[in-house]
Amino acid sequence: MFAPSPIPDTEPPHDCPACPRLVTFREALRVEFPGWWNAPVNAFGDPDAWLGIIGLAPGKHGANRTGRPFTGDAAGDLLFATLARFGLSAGDYAGTPDDGLSLHGAIIINAVKCLPPGNKPIPTEIHACRPFLDRQVRALPKARIFIALGQIAHQSAVKVLGGRLPKARFGHLAEHRFPNGATLIDSYHCSRYNQNTGRLTPEMFDAVFERALALRAPG
């Protein structure tokens, strides 16, 4: 069972041909792991969200396997535990798309929809996928606060939200406000590597969501 998109009209096709390198990688994985999702990964969460979480790209053993963003790997363990602590989810996260978890007030959308080799998309792939991110942001009229997980997500988010690079520089807990009224908060990515090296601690990640909730609060 794979998770359906809450905003299905914004998604790329299951066999999106836009990036030849990613298509080749996807087709090889479909042969090696035929039971995996192995396709562009859908958004996950609340279509009426006030908070948009912009990730980098699917992880090989996480979203590319399970078909749901951040599901089935260490990045998801931290992200979904954090969302639960801040009241942005319901149900228990078990690392599978049929675990019954739901998000409330938040939605996860990725800057790059397909798994890149080595978890590193190249600039042409990031650019080719940006229209899908733009489409998804536009489909979320109540989302005025966004969190970018990592520098690539930050760069795509700034472009989509109407900002300018390099004026809007990436930095953990950096905030960027845009003419359309949206605010972007940066975070180091919640990857296993960043967790293991201490670049991102649970307390640092909590601070990002605390700030998002503070910005949402009236007054």
Structure description:
- With 219 residues, the protein is an alpha/beta fold.
- The chain is built from seven helices and eight strands; from the N terminus they run αββααβββαβαββαα.
- It has helices spanning 20-32, 63-66, 74-85, 123-138, 151-161, 192-197, 202-216; strands at residues 44-45, 51-55, 89-90, 102-103, 106-110, 145-149, 175-177, 183-187.
- The model has no long low-confidence stretch (mean pLDDT 96).
Q: Can you give keywords for this protein?
A:
single chain, 219 residues, alpha/beta, six-stranded mixed beta sheet, two-stranded antiparallel sheet, 35% helix
Structural class estimated from helices and strands: alpha/beta
Count every beta strand, where a strand is a DSSP E run of 2 or more residues.
Answer: 8
Strand numbers in spatial order across the main sheet:
1-5-2-6-8-7
Would you identify the regions where 5 or more consecutive residues have pLDDT less than 50? none
What is the strand content?
Answer: 5-15%
Q: If you average the pLDDT, what whole number results?
A: 96
The global form is: globular
C-alpha Rg, in Å? 16 Å
Chain oligomer state: single chain
Query: What is the helix tally?
Result: 7
Helical proportion, percent range: 25-40%
What's the end-to-end separation, in Å?
43 Å
- Topology pattern, helix = H, strand = E: HEEHHEEEHEHEEHH
Query: What's the story with the biggest beta sheet?
Result: 6 strands, mixed
